[in-house]
Amino acid sequence: RSSAEAKRRSSAGSKWTSLKDAYHRPTVVDAGGGTCTFRGSQYKFERIFPAESSTAEVFSDACEAGVRGVLGGYDFTLLAYGPTGSGKSHTLLGGAHAADATDAAEPGVVQRAAACLFGAMGASAEGQTFCVHVSALELLQEGRLERCVDLLHDQATVVLRAGGGGGGGSG
């Protein structure tokens, strides 16, 4: 996120090769067309945030509507994906997680989501009750293997399965 290379690439034009995966294959992003090809699969996206984007901008543009939708009964998943050093932790946790904490005053998207959600819950009609379930998972790549750990439960390994029939993955 803050590297000079990321800044150069984000302003280089609509089509650029951004990063390489663990097998040194390029990820090609076509910002103008809203697509990303990674490991032979093509993904669609709505927006690329430039390296200089604030966490407030990312939250406002990409997360706030989803967080507010939770109060209407919708599920919401916040996902940050990318190689080491690409800004995932900074975006999610803000400056406070950094060793030098130079921008500790900027809360991350997670803190902003919690403040938004609990603020809206506090302002809701009296007598209304809520039940909030939160998961914090991290996908780790160790050599050619990937594993998922639960960050809220002593980094226990999580087995991911595809749900049957959609809607919450339980099926």
Structural features:
171 residues; alpha+beta; 4-stranded antiparallel β-sheet; 4 helices; 25% helix; globular; disordered N terminus
Count the helices. How many? 4
Q: Oligomeric state of the chains?
A: single chain
- The count of β-strands is 7
N-to-C span: 37 Å
Strand line-up in the sheet with most strands = 1-2-3-4
Q: So what's the overall shape?
A: globular
Q: Which segments are poorly predicted (pLDDT under 50) over 5 or more consecutive residues?
A: 1-23
Q: Approximately how much helix is present in the residues?
A: 25-40%
Strand content: 15-25%
Based on helices, strands and strand pairing, what is the structural class?
A: alpha+beta
Biggest β-sheet description: 4 strands, antiparallel
Tell me, rounded to a whole number, the average pLDDT: 74
- Based on CA atoms alone, the radius of gyration comes out at 18 Å
How do the SSEs run, as a string of H and E?
Answer: HEEEEHHHEEE
Short description:
This protein is α+β, with helices and mostly antiparallel strands and 171 residues long.
Description:
- With 171 residues, the protein is an alpha+beta fold.
- Helix content is 25%, strand content 20%.
- It has four helices and seven strands; from the N terminus they run H-E-E-E-E-H-H-H-E-E-E.
- The protein has helices at 4-10, 55-70, 88-93, 109-122; strands at 15-20, 26-30, 35-38, 41-44, 137-142, 145-150, 156-158.
- The strands form two sheets. It has a four-stranded antiparallel sheet. It has a three-stranded antiparallel sheet with strand order 5-6-7, with no helix packed on it.
- A hairpin with a 5-residue loop joins strand 6 (145-150) and strand 7 (156-158).
- Helix 2 (55-70) packs across helix 4 (109-122).
- It is globular and about 50 Å long.
- The model is unreliable at 1-23 (pLDDT under 50).
